Amino acid sequence: CDGQSGILNQTELVNRLSKVCKINLKGSLNINLNPPNDFQLRSSLTSKYIDLWRASNSCSIFENETLAIIISYRDREKNLKNLLYNLIPFLERQRIRNYKIFIIEQQAAGPFNKGRLYNIAFNHLMRTYKPTCVTFHDVDLIPENDQNLYSCLSLTHHPLHMSTNIHFDKKSLYTTLYSFLVGGVLTMQPETFIRLNGYSNRYFNWGGEDDDMGLRFLSKDICVQRPTTGYYYATFHSIQTRNPNRFKLLFDATLRQDSDGLNNIDRLASIKNQYEYPLVTWITVEWIEQD
Ligand code: BGN
């Protein structure tokens, strides 16, 4: 990414956190993949766990940011439990302030569509929560390095691909799948997401919607930053049906990008319900039937 000099990078932010708040982030963390039985998805999001995790030291360098972490979701209860059980204390360690985790659940029957869930959530949040920084987060990835800051302070219009090294369940190595990849965990300023017209709404089932986003970056000349601390643990789930159309869709993705995304999601999906918890908002989404 050219022209990035003078912009604080993650290492500088970690140093600043240590200097200003005396918080020493240690890097690699042990994650906990066995939440206690009494940690339950909805009920425990209001209970003792939240109080337990809240950082007592209120010093932060992120007061001026409002972060929305958007998790696309359906039917992955165990993965979500593991993620929240690790992610909330992780954000508290980093002294991230003014953050909220949005679980965007597809209630519509039929194949899963991650792009639609991210787009409808984003438009809704821009009208309500008004984030200054947005993270799009897979439900099955748990951050393992506390120096990988969930913040846009180090960014201008350059997005941050945070999940650069993934440790797959049951395997022992971290893998960088391919250098073009922007799937997994992706952070950017709302202005950038708007400029990209969000994700494509046309990818159902598994695969390709993230590569389509990668092509949007390329065609808009937006370069992606990749932290050296992007270590994540991928939790196991059953394999999703692959989308056989993904190659075809990717072929002319660039031609469609300005008409397929944030600017037509309101005709395709709608928010059904919203449930509020202290650090989490749970939103359910349906498709609008088209004739
Ligand atoms: C790729 C998928 C991505 C997925 C990564 C990592 C496609 C499109 C055909 C080139 N892309 O192969 O969507 O995030 O693997 O699992 O299938």
Describe this structure in words.
With about 290 residues, the protein is α/β, with parallel strands linked by helices. The chain has 8 helices and 11 strands. The longest helix has 17 residues, at about 75-95. Helix content is about 25%, strand content about 20%. Bound molecules: 2-(butanoylamino)-2-deoxy-beta-D-glucopyranose.
Task: Describe the structure in brief.
The chain is an alpha/beta fold and 291 residues long. The chain has helices at 10-21, 48-53, 77-93, 114-127, 190-195, 209-219, 246-251, 253-256; strands at residues 67-73, 99-106, 133-137, 141-143, 160-161, 165-168, 174-175, 185-188, 231-234, 269-276, 280-287. Helices cover 26% and strands 19% of the residues.
**Largest β sheet strand count, sense and barrel closure:** 7 strands, mixed
Q: Going across the biggest sheet, name each strand in turn.
A: 5-8-3-1-2-11-10
The SS-based structural class is alpha/beta
Number of strands: 11
Q: Could you tell me how far the N terminus lies from the C terminus, measured between alpha carbons in angstroms?
A: 44 Å
Number of helices: 8
Helical fraction:
25-40%
Order of helix and strand elements from N to C terminus = HHEHEHEEEEEEHHEHHEE
Low-pLDDT runs:
none
Name the beta content range: 15-25%
* Rough outline: globular
If you compute it from the alpha carbons, what radius of gyration comes out, rounded to the nearest whole angstrom? 18 Å
Q: Name the average pLDDT.
A: 92
